[in-house]
Automatic annotation (TrEMBL), chains A, B:
Organism per entry: Streptomyces cacaoi
Molecular function terms, GO-annotated: DNA-binding transcription factor activity; transcription cis-regulatory region binding
Name of the protein in question: TetR family transcriptional regulator
Gene3D superfamilies referenced in this protein's UniProt entry, alphabetically: Tetracycline Repressor, domain 2
Protein keywords: DNA-binding
Amino acid sequence: MGSAAGERAVNVRGAAPKQDRSRATRQRLLESAVTCLAEHGWSGSTVTVVAEHAGVSRGAAQHHFPTREDLFTAAVEYVAEERSRALRAAIDRGPADEAAASPAYTAVRTLVDLYTGTLFRAALHLWVAATNEPQLGPRVAALEARIGRETHRMAVELLGADEREPGVRETVQGLLDMARGLGLANLLTDDSARRERVVAQWARLVEQGLQG
Amino acid sequence: MGSAAGERAVNVRGAAPKQDRSRATRQRLLESAVTCLAEHGWSGSTVTVVAEHAGVSRGAAQHHFPTREDLFTAAVEYVAEERSRALRAAIDRGPADEAAASPAYTAVRTLVDLYTGTLFRAALHLWVAATNEPQLGPRVAALEARIGRETHRMAVELLGADEREPGVRETVQGLLDMARGLGLANLLTDDSARRERVVAQWARLVEQGLQG
């Protein structure tokens, strides 16, 4: 009995690193999938390409994600959640010491920045591919809705918006649409100088819109 | 000499229908290319697919457009120009009798509508493909810049905006970014009800922004 308990203890000790390894592999695959999607697009991003990028065998990748669709929708969701967590932590820490910037400017700047990085590029490739791939369409539409709701909640918090006031909800929604459009405008060329001027002006207009 | 002149006359008469036919074929190819791109995406839109859709032989298609890149960049440019012409004619005719709508609302509505049809879908597929296709990238970036400038000019006219006033240029730009973002939001699901509410609110914000 003493020996059996000892064996269990060993198993428990042995199981934890194995689970950790499995989780680390999964995370590497998810992060690699987003990187590959952003860099090579949907048609260039096969499971094999992602597995290679992650330094994982194709079999191990398929153990975690049976289909290509599983891998890429999970990847965009995972990275979006990681980003939400980071942004929420930043919100909880409170505003940084940006002497000159108004709170509305800082909020608009932060939201617009969400749409200019690797995640937006990856998501865009997935959204566009989903328009022509029947097995991808409904899953990506559901994913887009989840990410959209979460981003909207964060925007409301960042802006300190009171959505009970008429027009405020639509002001926030339109701002996120603008941020998405600015992301699109940054796809082929560096649009940062123009974007900066648009952010400065629209921070003022959004501030007015939030007053209901 | 009389006979030679007669021959020339026949040639001239014979040449006109041939040129017309050639131009009609070219137009059919361009319109088919945009339709195919919107429906099947870049990877599903080969020259063969477009030629078939247009009812033209592959050889004839290649006579007009030596490469796939030629065909699709020309197609998006052609359809964008056709749309500009139609919109300019509508602007010249003056506002329709929309009793309840403010001029700003009508202008914002018209601009947003530019980004919800077949042309936007086709252009989006081309833009996204251009991020991964070196032979497409610079051409599409140049095309995007040309279409963007023309759309901005039309927006300024439609809104009656005075860009010498501070902030007005950025108000118009941000509005077009928002319109592009709304187009993206309409890609996988019918977003028209939400879009309508955003347009109503943003028309008010734009009106304030245009006052400088």
